[in-house]
Amino acid sequence: MSFMKQSTVNRGAGFCFLGVAGLFVICIMTQIFIAGMAIFTDSSYWHSHIVFVRIFELFPIVMLLLSFIGKISTFLRWMSVLLLVFVFAQYFTANFDGAGAVHPLIAAVMLWVSIVVTVHAKRSMFPKKEHVQPEGVEIQ
Fold first, then answer.
1. What is the pTM (predicted TM-score) of this model?
2. Where are the membrane-spanning stretches (predicted)?
């Protein structure tokens, strides 16, 4: 594969990573909202809460694969692994007596980590260009 094609593949994988990370944030927020609906409105929403996770539970694996294809930072790779561990922890705490109280805490931390991942991915895809002051121009 030529250098140009390889860098295009890397950049494309980076954009896909950013997209999946952003979708993951939206899905976690939606999942938390559905849980709130089940607690405060109608318990029939628990079924939606259980089913909805099936849509996005594998996003961290996709993100991990894309991080290798796109040669994305080691930090984002490890954060993808951490998000996957959180997904498994959610299943564990939802189905293990006595650990259920940790379930919403993990959800909150997972939301925070996923936002950090998305912001970091965006910054790596679109780095800030340093503003170069034209010579002889003073701004006061």
1. 0.85
2. 12-40, 46-68, 75-94, 100-119
